[in-house]
Design goal:
single chain, 403 residues, alpha/beta, Aspartate Aminotransferase, domain 1, Aspartate Aminotransferase, domain 2, 2 domains, four-stranded mixed β-sheet, 14 helices, 15 strands, 39% helix, binds pyridoxal-5'-phosphate
Length: 403
């Protein structure tokens, strides 16, 4: 028998205190379910925060990790790496991109994107360009450059001085972007749907207008698809819904089915500024991670996951709208595919805790926005189970709350 109390005590004693964790140790996962040390089963609407899009321990990913770990776990990028080449090829064949730089996380992918944009400006004779415009309520990671890029004070507090050269504008405000562009602007970076910022969707034509502006002024357009890419919205990449394509896109989270990985994809034109010696990562594109990535992307393309995501996503959206019709303290339901946010008129943390007690893992972001990010294999029946429980919990917790 695992002594869960002792484990959690050691966790609190030895792990850097950067997360306020739930008193739960998850030890096993299969499909949409995870289990804790005491054997309690949970239906997982967090999925490692949009990482386990294929469900936990997808057999093809498990097999690929197993096979690759017996063949070759790591070699330097001084040499060509088989699964890295195959994954890059498959990503390019299924996207706007021509070239891929591999790294190990979303923040690193965004670092690569910003470095490339700056160097591209220099290489094309525009040395005065170094500024990057990003959006308020954005999230781009936790390194020094990516918290500098992130348009939320709470992530930057205490880490001064930040990197210079960032300008933040409200999401969905094209006029503000036009005012913010200067002769020094080298890039605009935006999430096609803001995840951490509360599941904020682009208004009609917004991404297209950004694209047009960037094309006119020779500015690099970066889409951060770390959270919404890899099928999360019902298309392989969220920007496909708008038919608008960036110069650079970043991926991570779900790319390798749960194994750490990041990737920066770029057009040939933008990518030409990365030449030998300009950027690197020891582990980037490592055989084990890219073998898992190749299996994960193949599974995503072969199985009917995108159709299921759209179908069950619509169902979840409609069921949450039913709850909105019933409870006046629900302000809004928004999202696409299986990234859906429900904005409450009060703090959502107690709802998350109550759902956990009833066997459902959900997330809350920005204090009052419940966020649902289940694996893309979730069924309508499983959604109905969650909704039934959530309806009761919202009824309890929302008592006496005016919207
Ligand atoms: C999670 C996330 C990141 C950061 O990814 P890490 O792997 O945690 O560094 C960057 N951008 C977006 C949109 C994200 O959701």
């Amino acid at each position: 028998m695992t002594d869960t109390k002792a484990l959690i005590a050691d966790s609190q004693r030895y792990i850097a205190n950067t997360y306020s964790r739930f008193p739960l140790v998850l030890v096993r996962g299969q499909g949409c379910k995870v289990w804790s040390t005491d054997g309690t089963e949970y239906l997982d609407f967090v999925a490692g925060l949009a990482v386990c899009n294929l469900g936990h321990c997808h057999p093809k990913v498990v097999q690929a990790i197993h096979d690759q770990s017996r063949k070759l776990i790591h070699v330097s990028n001084f040499y060509h790496i088989e699964p890295q080449i195959e994954l890059a090829k498959l990503l390019c064949e299924n996207s706007f991109a021509d070239r891929v730089f591999f790294c190990n996380s979303g923040a690193e992918a965004n670092e690569a994107a910003m470095k490339l944009a700056k160097k591209y400006a220099k290489d094309t004779g525009r040395a005065e360009r170094f500024e990057i415009i990003t959006m308020e309520r954005s999230f781009h990671g936790r390194t020094m450059a990516t918290i500098s890029a992130t348009g939320q004070d709470k992530f930057r507090k205490g880490f001064d001085p930040l990197l210079p050269g960032f300008t933040y504008v409200p999401f969905n405000d094209m006029e503000a972007v036009l005012r913010a562009v200067t002769p020094h602007t080298c890039a605009i970076m935006v999430e096609p749907i803001q995840g951490e910022g509360g599941v904020n969707c682009p208004s009609d034509g917004y991404l297209k207008d950004l694209r047009e502006l960037c094309r006119e002024r020779g500015i690099i357009l970066i889409f951060d698809e770390v959270q919404v890419g890899m099928g999360r919205t019902g298309r392989l990449f969220a920007h496909e819904h708008e038919g608008v394509y960036p110069d650079i896109m970043t991926l991570a989270k779900s790319l390798a089915g749960g194994v750490p990985i990041g990737a920066m994809l770029a057009t040939e034109e933008a990518a030409k500024s990365f030449t030998p010696g300009t950027h690197a990562s020891t582990f980037g594109g490592n055989p084990l991670a890219t073998a898992a990535g190749l299996a994960a992307l193949s599974a995503l393309l072969e199985d009917d996951l995108l159709e299921n995501c759209t179908k069950v996503g619509d169902h979840l959206f409609n069921r949450l709208m039913d709850l909105k019709g019933k409870y006046p303290f629900i302000n809004e339901v928004r999202g696409k595919g299986l990234i859906i946010g429900m904005e409450l008129g009060f703090e959502g943390s107690q709802i998350v805790t109550r759902c956990m007690e009833e066997g459902f893992l959900i997330n809350c972001t920005m204090g009052n926005i419940l966020r649902f990010l289940p694996p893309l294999i979730i069924t309508s029946e499983e959604v109905d189970q969650l909704i039934g429980t959530l309806e009761g919990i919202l009824g309890e917790c929302g008592k006496g709350v005016e919207s």
